[in-house]
Design goal:
The complex is a heterodimer of chains A (326) and B (123). Chain A is an alpha/beta fold and 326 residues long. Chain A folds into three domains: 85 residues, Ubiquitin-like (UB roll) (Roll), CATH 3.10.20.30; 95 residues, Elongation Factor Tu (Ef-tu), domain 3, CATH 2.40.30.10; 123 residues, Nucleotide-binding domain of ferredoxin-NADP reductase (FNR) module (Rossmann fold, 3-Layer(aba) Sandwich), CATH 3.40.50. In chain A, 21% of the residues lie in helices and 31% in strands. Chain A is built from eight helices and 17 strands. In chain A, the strands form three sheets. Chain A has a six-stranded antiparallel sheet with strand order 9-8-11-6-7-10. Chain A has a six-stranded parallel sheet with strand order 15-14-13-12-16-17, with helices on both faces. A five-stranded mixed sheet of chain A has the order 2-1-5-3-4, covered by helices on one side. In chain A, helix 5 links the parallel strand 13 and strand 14. The radius of gyration of chain A is 21 Å and the shape is globular. Chain B is mainly alpha-helical. Chain B has a single domain, classed as Orthogonal Bundle (Globin-like), CATH 1.10.490.10. Chain B has seven helices and no strands. In chain B, helix 2 packs across helix 5. The chains are: A alpha/beta (326), B mainly alpha (123). The interface between A and B is medium-sized, with 16 and 21 residues. Bound molecules: protoporphyrin IX containing FE (HEM). Protoporphyrin IX containing FE sits at the interface of chains B and A.
Chain lengths: 326, 123
C-alpha cells in the first residue's frame, strides 16, 4: 500500500488514483484545472520519497530539481511526502551567526552568515531572515556553494524598511539570527554550456546575479555572459571593481553598468538596464535570461524578452516586491 | 487514408510544445486581444496556453463545456465577445501555418476551437 503524507496526515493511495485525487478526496484543498498534466495549476512539491518521472513532465528544469511535480499525473509506486508550493512549514529554521557586515554602497549592506547546520542551496536562490519569529524578509544569496564558505546577502535599506533598517542599524557581528530556506527557482543549471546568458538586474538585484555568474563561470560555462546592472546614478552601483576583475579574468564575461539618470560618466552606458540590454542584443532566440530586481523591470523585461524570441523556459526571474526586500 | 487522430497527425505533445511560444507571442502582440492576457503571471499563462492548444489539436484533455464557461466567465464580464474568439482562431491558424501544417489540418483545428465558442462566451 502506498501512502501519501501531507502536513500531519497520512492517506492511503487507492489503485489507479492520482495524488491529486487522493488529496482532494480527503478534503485537502489542492487547486487544479485540466487534470491532464498540462495547465500546472496543481503544482506541488515532494519533500520525501521518489517521484515518478512523468509527474514532472513539462516543468521548468529549476522546478524539477527542487522536486516540484503535477499532482494530477502523479501515480507513485512508493510512499511520498508532499506539500503545497506555498506551505511555509516545509523547511526547518536554521540558526546562523553574523560573521561580518560591510557597506557595499550607501544603501546596500553585505551580510555574511555562518549557518549552524549545512544548508543546501544554489547561487541565486533566496533565504528568509527573521528579526523575530513573525517578522522575516527574503534576501537573495550572492554566494556560491562550492566557492564561498558562508552565505552572502546584499541587503538594501528601504525607506521605513523594518527588517532592512534593523540589519543596517542594529545587527552586529557575532549575533545569531534565524533563517529559513532556500527557495526560488532563479538559478544556473549546468548543461548547454555554450548558450548565451543575459543577466539584467536593478539595485540589489545584483545579489542573485553575482552568484549566478560566478556559479556559471566556475562550472565551465563557455557561452557569452552579459551582465547589465542598472541604477539611477553612480551611487547605486556596487561591486564594480570585482565585476571588472571578472571581465579581465574571463574572456566570455561582459559587464555593462547602466545609469538611467542624467549624469553618465565615461565607462557607463546611458539608459535603463533592460532597454540597454535589448538594444545591444535585439534577437533573443536561444538566449537564457536572468531578471532580478524591481518588479516593474522584471515584468516588462520578461515580456520583451519573450517577444524578442527567448523561450519561456529560458527566462528565469526574481521580482523583489517590497515585502520581499524591505 | 490514415487511422491516426488529428492530434497524432499534428505531432502530439511535441507539436504543442513547438506551437506554444509562437502562439503565445502572437496573442501578446495582437492588440485586439492582448489586454485579456495582461496582469497574469506569464509562466502560468504559458501553461494554460498549452492546455488550450492540446484541446484545439484534438489531444487528450478533461475539460467540459462547463469548465470552459467557468474558466472564461471573468473575461466575458470584461467584454469578451465573438470578435475575440475570431482573433484567437486566426492567431492559431497563423501559428500552424508558420509551422508548415497543411491547410486541411488547420481547418480541423479551427473547427474544434469553433465548437467551443458558445461555451467560452457563456451563452
Ligand atoms: C476559441 C476557443 C477557446 C478555447 C477552446 C479556450 C480554452 C482555454 C483553456 C483550455 C484554458 C485553460 C483553463 C485552465 O485550465 O485554467 C483557457 C484559459 C484562458 N483563456 Fe481561453 N479558450 C478559448 C478562447 C479564448 C479567448 C477568445 C480568449 C481571450 C481573448 C481566451 C483567454 C483565456 C485566458 C486569459 C485564459 C487564462 C485564464 C486564467 O488564467 O484564469 N480564451 N482557455
Amino acid at each position: 500500500m502506498t501512502t501519501i503524507r501531507y502536513a500531519n496526515d497520512k492517506f492511503e493511495l487507492e489503485p489507479n488514483e492520482s495524488v491529486l485525487e487522493c488529496l482532494t478526496n480527503h478534503g485537502v484543498p489542492v487547486p487544479f484545472s485540466c487534470r491532464s498534466g498540462v495547465c500546472q495549476t496543481c503544482l506541488m512539491r515532494a519533500t520525501g520519497g521518489k517521484l515518478p518521472e512523468t509527474s514532472q513532465q513539462g516543468l521548468k528544469d529549476s522546478l524539477k530539481l527542487q522536486n516540484y511535480f503535477l499532482a494530477c499525473v502523479c501515480y507513485p509506486d512508493a510512499d511520498l511526502e508532499v506539500a503545497l508550493p506555498d506551505d511555509k512549514d516545509v523547511q526547518a529554521v536554521i540558526p546562523a551567526t553574523v560573521l561580518s557586515l560591510k557597506l557595499l554602497n550607501a544603501e546596500i549592506m553585505h551580510v555574511e552568515l555562518v549557518c549552524h547546520e549545512p544548508i543546501d542551496y544554489r547561487a541565486g536562490q533566496f533565504i528568509n531572515l527573521f528579526q523575530h519569529q513573525t517578522l522575516g524578509r527574503s534576501y537573495s544569496l550572492a554566494s556560491v556553494p562550492h566557492e564561498d564558505d558562508h552565505l552572502h546577502l546584499h541587503v538594501r535599506r528601504l525607506p521605513q524598511g523594518r527588517v532592512s533598517g534593523w540589519i543596517h542599524d542594529e545587527l552586529r557581528p557575532g549575533e545569531t539570527v534565524e533563517i529559513r530556506g532556500p527557495g526560488g527557482d532563479c538559478f544556473y543549471i549546468p548543461g548547454n554550456n555554450d548558450q548565451g546568458l543575459i543577466l539584467i538586474g536593478t539595485g540589489s538585484g545584483l545579489a542573485p546575479l553575482y552568484g549566478i555568474i560566478r556559479d556559471a563561470l566556475s562550472q565551465g560555462h563557455t557561452g557569452p555572459i552579459h551582465l547589465f546592472h542598472g541604477s539611477r546614478d553612480l551611487n547605486g552601483l556596487y561591486l564594480t571593481g570585482e565585476l571588472r576583475d571578472l571581465v579581465n579574468q574571463y574572456s566570455n564575461f561582459n559587464y555593462v553598468p547602466c545609469l538611467s539618470g542624467e549624469d553618465v560618466p565615461h565607462g557607463y552606458v546611458a539608459g535603463r538596464a533592460h532597454d540597454v540590454a535589448f538594444q545591444q542584443i535585439p534577437n533573443l532566440k536561444n538566449w537564457r535570461l536572468f531578471l532580478c530586481g524591481h518588479p516593474d523591470m522584471v515584468k516588462t523585461a520578461k515580456m520583451k524578452a519573450f517577444l524578442a524570441g527567448a523561450s519561456m523556459k529560458d527566462i528565469y526571474a526574481d521580482a523583489f516586491n517590497v515585502s520581499k526586500s524591505s | 487514408m490514415s487511422e491516426q487522430s488529428l492530434y497524432e497527425q499534428l505531432g502530439g505533445e511535441a507539436a504543442v510544445n513547438a506551437a506554444v511560444d509562437i502562439f503565445y507571442r502572437k496573442v501578446l502582440s495582437d492588440d485586439r486581444i492582448s489586454a485579456f492576457f495582461e496582469d497574469v503571471d506569464m509562466e502560468k499563462q504559458a501553461a494554460k496556453q498549452k492546455a488550450f492548444l492540446t484541446m484545439a489539436f484534438g489531444g487528450p484533455h478533461n475539460y467540459t463545456g462547463l469548465d470552459m464557461r467557468k474558466g472564461h466567465a471573468h473575461l466575458v464580464a470584461r467584454g469578451l465577445n465573438d470578435s475575440h474568439v475570431d482573433a484567437v482562431i486566426e492567431d492559431l491558424g497563423a501559428t500552424l501555418r508558420e509551422l508548415g501544417v497543411k491547410e486541411e489540418l488547420i481547418a480541423q483545428v479551427a473547427a474544434i476551437a469553433e465548437s467551443t465558442r458558445n461555451d467560452v462566451l457563456d451563452r
